[in-house]
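User: quick one - fold this with zinc ion bound?
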Amino acid sequence: MSLGNVQGVVLKSINLGESDKIITIFTDKLGKIDVVAHGARKPKSQIASSTLPFCYCKFSIYKGKNLYTLSQSQIIESFQRIIMDLEKLSLGSYILEMIDVLNEKEAKNVYMLGLLLKSLYLLSDSDVDLELLKTTFEYKIVSLSGYQPSVLNCVKCKSNEELHFFSITDGGMVCDKCFVNKGMVYELNNSELDLLRTLRNIKLEDLRNINYNKLNLKRLDEIMEKYISYYTEREFKSLNLIKEIKRS
Ligand SMILES: [Zn+2]
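Assistant: Sure. Structure tokens for the protein plus zinc ion:
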């Protein structure tokens, strides 16, 4: 058995037996791991509060033959303000689900952890526009996952002129010369393309300082959702919750 200390965010948890849990943590040193938390559902458990989704903690773990086991934990940030607000909770759940789905087990990725933590702190502590955060997060996470769309040049001929179409199937902007009207293609106006490029360049901490048109953002959000589902071949359960809350 080897004992080690990691820091990470709890992505999800499932019950095990009568009083235990298996938690999935996205950690700094080991990437995404599953950890058994013995007794975490007992009323007097010392570790219970650190096994809840969103919790950012220091964890002492050891590895048996197959599984990691939690021995101690210390909360760094529980992100209560996310959990207390239904809109923030729905976006936060989507962020955790995306991190879970787009990361293989035990593949360390400090950039991805940085993106996760910045997003959660921003969601928790600021009045950032949630739709802007959502679309920016989507752009950043697909880029870190190896599916960065080409938005500066034509994905086919590399020209940077007459870029008017975003092709999901080709993976980015297509110029007028290369445009073929088939597959999942969206015509973008200049301000939509500008906003798309802003999502590419902006740091999350600067999101509160940008001006943008809500309708442009809505369109890009729709495109990013389709882009993600095309490349991950997945449906995200928490996305339905976001849409339901918006409708009500
Ligand atoms: Zn072209």
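One thing worth noting: Residues 214-232 form the longest helix (19 residues).
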